[in-house]
Structures are given as structure tokens and as C-alpha cells.
Amino acid sequence: MKRRFLLGWIFVFFALMLTGCGAIAQAQGAQTTADVTVQVTLMDFKISSSIVKFVVGVHYHFVITNKSDWEHEQFQLGPLIEPGMTMRDVEQQKLFGFKSIAPGETKFADYTFTQAAPLGTWQFSCHVGTLYEPRMLLGIVVVDPRSPTNNV
Length: 152
Description:
alpha+beta; Immunoglobulin-like; four-stranded mixed β-sheet; 2 helices; 26% helix; 41% strand
């Protein structure tokens, strides 16, 4: 009788431990594999995004929609343009982009950030004609939750 009682408690103990380990693994997996949809809207002289603070390691699905009456050319998620940078520099450093997005058109991109970046590092922008000058851009921030020195 005592032996069955002891075996029963041992069984319950191990069952609870396995359940706890599974919950921890599931929570950790959810942080790295979850897709997050980001709605990016292009308008006349304005870009808006449902998210502007991104997290390293999270997979993002970008849905970019042109709600303007005008075609948006050279739309991209790329570096902040600094003095002396050429469009070739910008093109080589971009994370993703499209040559053209027609009025009413929606395009898609997937991206996972691999390192943190403070505001002023990356931006959504259009780079053709005079669109960049009147602030056709939107800065973003990328944080790394594993870093103890996230100063963004």
C-alpha cells in the first residue's frame, strides 16, 4: 500500500514537472516565431505605420498600401540619409523596398530585425523627385529585449 502511494506521488511530481517544462518551451518559442503584421500606409506626403517600435528576433509581415492618388516610387525601409550619401549607398543599405507602388496597390514584405537600432538609424521613406524633401519618411526604433543596455 505504501509503495503504491509513494509511486503515485512520484508520478504526479514528474507529470507536473513535464507540464511546467513544456509551458516554458512554448512561451520561449512564441517569442521567436510569432509573426506580427505591420500596416504601412503611403499617403500624399506622409507615411504611417501601425508599429514604429520593433523587436529583434520577431518576424514581421509588412503590408504596404498606397492610399494616395499618386504613384510612390523607390519606397523602402532603409538607412537615414546622411550628408554625402548617394542613392547607390542608400540602395545597398536598405532592408527591403519596391521600385513602384501604384495608387490603391498593396505590396508585401517579410523581415526579421537582427540587431537593435536607435531612432535615426532606419526609416520608411520614398526617394524619388521632391517626395523625400517634404518629409516623406517615418523613423523607426528596433530594441533587443536581451540587451541590458537598451537605450532606445
